[in-house]
Structure formats: C-alpha cells, structure tokens
Amino acid sequence: xxxxxxxxxxxxxxxxxxxxxxxxxxxxxxxxxxxxxxxxxxxxxxxxxxxxxxxxxxxxxxxxxxxxxxxxxxxxxxxxxxxxxxxxxxxxxxxxxxxxxxxxxxxxxxxxxxxxxxxxxxxxxxxxxxxxxxxxxxxxxxxxxxxxxxxxxxxxxxxxxxxxxxxxxxxxxxxxxxxxxxxxxxxxxxxxxxxxxxxxxxxxxxxxxxxxxxxxxxxxxxxxxxxxxxxxxxxxxxxxxxxxxxxxxxxxxxxxxxxxxxxxxxx
Length: 267
Ligand code: NAP
Ligand code: MN
Description:
Blueprint: E1 2-7, H1 11-26, E2 30-31, E3 38-43, H2 45-54, E4 63-68, E5 78-79, H3 83-90, E6 102-115, E7 118-124, E8 127-132, E9 137-143, E10 146-159, H4 167-170, E11 182-190, E12 203-206, E13 211-215, E14 221-225, E15 228-232, E16 235-251, H5 257-265
Parallel strand pairs: 1-2, 1-3, 3-4, 4-5, 4-16
Antiparallel strand pairs: 6-7, 6-16, 8-10, 8-14, 9-10, 9-13, 10-11, 11-12, 13-16, 14-15
Helix pairs in contact: 1-3
Bound molecules: NADP nicotinamide-adenine-dinucleotide phosphate and manganese (II) ion (MN).
Enzyme class: transferase
Function: Involved in the regulation of the intracellular balance of NAD and NADP, and is a key enzyme in the biosynthesis of NADP. Catalyzes specifically the phosphorylation on 2'-hydroxyl of the adenosine moiety of NAD to yield NADP.
EC number: 2.7.1.23
C-alpha cells in the first residue's frame, strides 16, 4: 500500500501528519509522492480540494481520505484521534473488530475553456464560477446547443453534487445527493430587465447534457475552479458537463451525506 499525506500547513495539521507518517512506517506502509494508492488530506475541506488538484492526473487509481483538524467537514470526515485506526485499516490488518473499508465515488464536472489564446480542459470537485472583474458579466447560456438565456449579473456558479453544500448553498442552490450524477447552475446576482432575462432559479442538468457559456462582450473575467483563480481577458466560451471520471473516497464506517448536512448546518 503506497500512500501520501497532504496537510494544510498549520501547526496541528503538520503535527498530525508527522504522527501519521510514524504510525504508517510502523505498519510498513510505503510513502510515495508519485503514485500513491491512498492520498490522506489533513486539515479541512479546502485541503481536500488541494489534494484532489495535486493528483488530478491519477484520480482513477487513487482513493482519498480526509482528516479534519477543526470542524467536521464534508470531505474531511475522519477525526484526528482515529488516525491509528485509519493507518491499521490502510495496512490491511485483518482485525475482526475493524470494519472493512468501502469506496464511495462522487461525480465531478469537466469543462472545456476556449480563449482566443487557446483551449484547455479542467475538472472540478466543488464548482467553477465565472465572474466579472471590472463589472457585471454578460454571457449567453446555451443548454444542449440551444440558446437558453442571456445572463447579466455578478456571475454564474456550476457545482457538483458534493460541491452543492459549498458556494452553491450560499447562492440558494439545492443540496444534491452525490449518488445523483448531475450538475447545478446557480446565478450570482443576475440583473433582470427587458434585455437580460434569466430563469432566476437554480437548474440541475443530468449526465450527458451540456451547457455552454459564451462571453458576449469584451470583458475581464475571473474563472475560479474550486480554489484556483484564472483571470482572463480573452475568454470565448466554457463548455461544462458531468465528467466520466469520479473521485473515490475511502469510508470505513457509514457517514450518510444527509447526516453531514445536518451536522454542518443544523446541529
Ligand atoms: P475558503 O474560503 O477557505 O472556503 C470557504 C468555506 O467552504 C470553508 O469553510 C470550507 O471548509 C468550505 N467548503 C469547501 N468545500 C466544501 C464543501 N464541499 N461543502 C461544504 N463546505 C465546503 O476556501 P477553500 O477552503 O479554498 O475552499 C474553496 C471553496 O470555497 C470553493 O470551492 C467554494 O465552494 C467555497 N466558496 C464559498 C463562497 C461562498 O459561500 N460565498 C465563496 C467563495 C468560495 P474548510 O474550512 O473545511 O476548508
Ligand atoms: Mn479553507
């Protein structure tokens, strides 16, 4: 079993990652930064976003585990004091008292960015947002190659089911269970008048549907993919859809999504 640990960099996370390495060495786990089987993120949900993007090229062969050092997270759902159990589970010791790990797989969004200066592909775990830098965004939104609406406002957010509890939630989007392969489009402060008319409600697209967002004026835009900001002044369009790739997480005890939602927002 090859593993890698990525921590948030604060003193507690650094200390926990040292503890992890010590225990892992005792159990004969092999530290491998190049092609790990399991990537452990220690910190918060934001740390998992980092881990995901660090290993984006290998996500089909990696399972992620998140340990939280503050509040319980959506991706970081292991407690610090469970590290010994986690290491033991990863080393495959057949302790009958230990539950067998389960792998859960969550949908991702892929996007194709077209700029006058070239094209690129990206994947998001939470969401991507498109925002104006100098003013409002003017963009045409097409769904499955048909014009849907002309948007003007602060921006547009397109989120995954597991990202629905993040930025999407602040925008009034719905919480989507990650077994549902879908993407959700939410508006960020749209202007509605005779020229610009938008639906005003979040939209959920199933797999195999796609959405194109075309820049409709000369504008400086900020494309944010999870935590990564990509400023641009020559965007032509972004096409997005549910990806064929998924992210895998290791679970060794059930922790239903709705319990995490209640835990984070209601308890
Ligand atoms: P950040 O500004 O430190 O994160 C914002 C908050 O979002 C943190 O509390 C983070 O948890 C939490 N979070 C991240 N993923 C989540 C998820 N899937 N479900 C519920 N909460 C989640 O920046 P960051 O840590 O780099 O995270 C980037 C994310 O921040 C973006 O993907 C976006 O979703 C979110 N964001 C939200 C708003 C908003 O709600 N107005 C604005 C910008 C960005 P941790 O503290 O555990 O890291
Ligand atoms: Mn954060």
